[in-house]
Amino acid sequence: MSGAGNLWAILTTPIIRQNPVTLQILGICSALAVTTSLDTALTLAISLTLVVVVSAGIVSVIRRHIPNAIRLIVQIIIVASLVIVVDQVLQAYFFELSQRLSVFVSLIATNCIVLGRTESFARSNPPVPAMVDALGSGLGYGLVLVLVGACRELFGTGRLLGWQVLPLADQGGWFTPLSLMLLAPSAFFLLGGLVWMVRSIWSEQAEAPDFPPHATGEDR
Amino acid sequence: MADLNPLSLWRRFLATPNDSRVKTLVVAFLVSAVCAIAVTGATVWLRPIQAQNRAVEQQAKLEALISAVPGMSELIEDAGGEALTTVVIDLDDGAASPSVTPETLEAALADPSNWTTLAAGDDIAGIGNRPNYAQIYLLRNGDKVSLAILPVAGTGYGGRIQALLALRGDMRTLAGIAITEQSETPGLGARISEPLWQRSFAGKQLSDDTGAQRFAVARGPGRTEYEVDGITGATRTSNAITQMIRFWTGPNGYGPLMAAIRRGDF
After folding, report:
1. Beta carbons of B31 and A78 less than 8 Å apart
2. pLDDT in tens, A186-195
């Protein structure tokens, strides 16, 4: 661990090159569910980033004293408690948003990204790199959520964060909303397209096929 | 000589090997205790704000429900805008409660003796026990009740469902429904909170001429005057709504009250 350059690398690696959603395909359940609009996507991204950074910090501080036998339990308790606190705060101060996010805030506790970062990185690194790494993962997740959420809200309703960006046809404009964008499948399409795009640009991310395509075995 | 300085005891504890049983137990206990305090603190501290949010939302939904019922705003205007009266009723008597007022209702419901445990056969809505008092809203036209808004609750697929049910003065015709709280599956059961679906309740009949309960959320499109369209992929939620409405408009719910209103006692 030497200096700021290293921290910068820890921070930026998970944003694109090791993005938890597009490379590791982690946490896509919530990524699909909350991205119908940009504000829910942003809220969940911020909540997750907060939870993952704070839990990585705490786990990292007590890392030398977590008995190996119960380390997952300890991590989950810390993560789950933080999630409940975040959920309660959202319900108190952002009531309408929290109604729309419904269970997905509480489901941060089961998001693989959080436990993945605490287990694989925070448990064996000092607090500052651990929190920077967690911040990078949170931002990487948030970036995908925001991209998909912005696409879906823009093309599904013609709005961004509630502002009418594209004038709707039924209000005298030219844009006809694609209602498919508001349904769950569109998130799959967008995410699939995004993964394809990322892996075409950074081709080292593409996985080798699990099974080679069948040879037809016939000469014609 | 035993060193009882807490700081050095703490250091000694931290120095014990991680795998020792004592350390495992103590670490588990400490982590749980700190987390419990954090969670409890957040919940207790933020509860008043959350309760206020919910009350505001309930009020907004009540207003939305009233404005969605066709002809409602005209009725209220005719009556001078103050037509909606709030009454706490005793569910068993079907009459206004002499002792409990809207202000004291919350305190009364905190007392377990004001709840009735339902027998398994009666508990079709799956709520376990039922309050003896409920706050309802009545709209009068002359001295007849023209609309009653009744809070109802049931158990859906994902948890508790709460709603406000609006009944016309004949106590057989539904005027509307507003789901005020639900935690059903997003995209499937949660569609019960869509206004379009809720609007389909208006004009449906609860029971036939013999008084038998006929209202149901259909499987697929509703075909009779007693059925509203079912929600595809949410059979359990649809059934829960059917059972909830049947329970609350039945003898263990608002049945006595509805009979009293029909007789003109209210």
Report:
1. yes
2. 888 888 898 8
Whether A216 maps to a domain, the answer reads: no
**Chain A contact present for B40, CB below 8 A:** no
Quick check: A103 and B28 CB within 8 A?
no
Q: Whose CA is closest to A45, among A201, A199, A180, A150? A: A150
Domain that residue A173 falls in:
13-203
The answer to the question of residue A60 being in a domain is: yes
Q: What is the ipTM of this complex?
A: 0.75
Q: Do A84 and B43 touch (CB under 8 A)?
A: yes
Residue in A78, A84, A184 closest to B42 by CB: A84
Instruction: Flag whether A4 is in a domain.
Output: no
Q: What pTM was estimated for this model as a whole?
A: 0.66
The owner of tokens 């964060």 is: A161
Mean per-residue pLDDT for B130-136?
A: 89
Number of structural domains in chain A: 1
Q: Do A85 and B32 touch (CB under 8 A)?
A: no
Would you say residue A101 lies in a domain? yes
Question: Which chain B residues touch A62 with a CB distance below 8 Å?
Answer: 27, 31
